[in-house]
Amino acid sequence: MERLTGTGVSPGVGHGPAYLMGAAVPEPPAGSRHGGDVVAEVARAEAAMERVAADLSARGEAAGGEARDVLAAQAMIARDPVLSSEVADLINAGTAAERAVYEAFMRYHDMLAEIGGYLGERAADLADIRDRVIAELAGLRTGGLPKKGDTPYVLVARDLAPADTALLTKDVVAAFVTEQGGPTSHTAILARAMGVPAVVACAGATAIVNQTLVLVDGATGTVGLVPSEEEVAAAVEAARTRDSAMAAVTGPGATADGRPVALLANIGGPRDIETALEHGAEGVGLYRTEFLFLDRDTAPSEEEQEAAYREVISAFPGGPVVVRVLDAGADKPLGFLPPTEKEPNPALGARGIRIMRIFPDILAGQLRALARAAEGASAHVQVMAPMVATPEEAAWFVAACRAAGLRSSGVMVEVPAAALRAADLAPGVDFFSIGTNDLAQYAFGADREVSALAGFQDPWQPVLLDLVAMTASAGVPCGVCGEAGADPALACVLVGLGVGSLSMAAPALPWVRAALLRHTFDQCRAAAVAARAETTPDAARVAARAHLPALPDLGL
Amino acid sequence: MAERKVIVESAVGLHARPAATFVQTAAKAPIDITVGKPGRTPVSAKSILSILALDVRNGEVIVIQADGDGAEKVLDELVAIVSVP
């Protein structure tokens, strides 16, 4: 079978007919004119806009929650009366409906893009709605994804947006393949949360012909086209062997010689508890509390926060629950935390602890709610602050935690300044937690959201391993809560560097547990030394694996 | 022609949820309603895109005008929406 290769970001094997989604909608040629029947052409345009609006609201209603508000606002744009009369004016002047829609949308698109910031992001929404309407007019696609069929399909796309994926479930989609994106893209995170195999950054993916049978291996990153029945059977069998090898390994994480490594889950709220427990999480290593705060006009009340925190804390009796306080900032703007000035580089702006120091009341309220939720619980509640760069910031945060009555407080290490001077930070805090995704972004000065720069996000970059080593040897317990820990080979390397707990999207936990249990701490340390001696991520990967002989037995 | 001049108290200005609620409320009234910044050409209060493009921030003054039956009532409703901090 013919093969394409990308980056495997969610392990497992999936196969089914390809469903190619949202291939780029071409710009309708300038100057294209309709046949002369103005009334019919206007009606055609209005009907297409209404169908897109109805489809967006229907999908929002079905998805509920945050997606409903997002999609309702997009439907409102598709039904905008001024936009619709501008389309009609253009058609009156002879322009074909597709081109008229394009030009009318672009006028607002450009206006919003020029204002930038929050409105600049709405400009991207506008381009998406515009393409949906043009596609509807040109009969390019029907707008939504196919409903559940007899067999799950493999969703192939250039990239996926939340609006596309709000309704997907495991029995509908067998695997994801995208041409763009990286290990931290929306597709990757969603796929891991769903437990569906996924390959991203797969060159040539959108050239796959609709309905072609596709075989996806989310561990190796291979996408096979038109596989034979034997090839599918062999791949499924290999995955089954892997799965049963994983299922046989249970209990708390540890190396072969008994050095404990806490295996924890990254969660966004109470709804992720079930998946975490299913995969044997010993606790929570990263509770992203910002989901409670997003898309609201005011901060949630302390009572509402306390209830959510209590639900998570009580689900892990005896285990650690590491809570990250609100990580807001210019790229995740919150209405009630207005930026103090325009930020041309949001990732370098007032985010994380920096914005907390501008709005200390929000932090104080959150810490009070956490302290009350932790009262009487058997879980070990630990609180950490994002984006800490200096000992002074760390001391400020720890003092705020102590004032609220929280016993264990630490900082996230995601800025090189914090990693390089971890020894200065260590005396003032109870623990470190390394966020590898942001640490890579800041070490390389490469925006993690830009897919053309995805190579810098490779967690095997030797410089990233150096920064982890410095942090882990600073004298306080150190965990990793970035996606790096979800790679079984890299998990062994991180342990070899001195990391004592690994937190990841829950479906990756069994793989990591199995890989650790088959190797001694000395082997992990040797793998770490070998990886750091290399100069490229690929060489580091190869060098480390040479010291981890049991990985192939596990099919990893 | 009824008119209100009001300071936008909503923290996010006339964007995001306040903008959506504003447009939904205006769209229900069967009369013409406009909104604008003082001294600038007003736009339809029923058009979410026109309102977003006005880029009204927290603390700015807007002028809302309506003409026809129920104008006073709908203006009161719209003022209330932008007056929520």
From TrEMBL, chain B:
Keyword set, alphabetical order: Cytoplasm, Phosphotransferase system
Principal location listed in the UniProt entry: cytoplasm
Residue ranges constituting the HPr domain according to the UniProt record: 1-85
Function: General (non sugar-specific) component of the phosphoenolpyruvate-dependent sugar phosphotransferase system (sugar PTS). This major carbohydrate active-transport system catalyzes the phosphorylation of incoming sugar substrates concomitantly with their translocation across the cell membrane. The phosphoryl group from phosphoenolpyruvate (PEP) is transferred to the phosphoryl carrier protein HPr by enzyme I. Phospho-HPr then transfers it to the PTS EIIA domain.
Gene3D superfamilies named in the record: HPr-like
SUPFAM superfamilies in the record: HPr-like (SSF55594)
Subcellular locations according to the entry: Cytoplasm
Protein name as it appears in the record: Phosphocarrier protein HPr
